[in-house]
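Folds abound. A case:
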Amino acid sequence: MPEIFQIVIDESVDYAIVQTLKHTRFSIISISDETPSIPDKQVLEIAYAHNALLITEDKDFGELVFRLQLKHKGILLIRMIKAKSSEKADAVLKVIEMHFNDMIDNFSVLDNLKLRIRK
């Protein structure tokens, strides 16, 4: 497991997740803090340029990766629809700590029940 995790967090992500990850060993780029309202394609480019896992709650990134074949270093799509902010933050922290290396270069989906990694 790398010493420093590079992560870009899309502005669609619940801010509790940003706050939780900022207080860990992760190196975070928060789009909502640094470059709000940029297009999804540019968010993906930033994550790729930083060799970073992209965390999002926006399903449009699936189209960018699968249909348009845009480059990425890994995407974690959060689909915890009815979960509270704190539950989402805890779940994301847990899966990143346990599965970060598995998510690199893959498209992963975290829902209320499990983490699915599509290679």
Remarks:
- The first strand starts at residue 5 and ends at 9.
- The chain has one domain: 5-118.
- The chain has five helices and six strands.
- The chain has a mean pLDDT of 94.
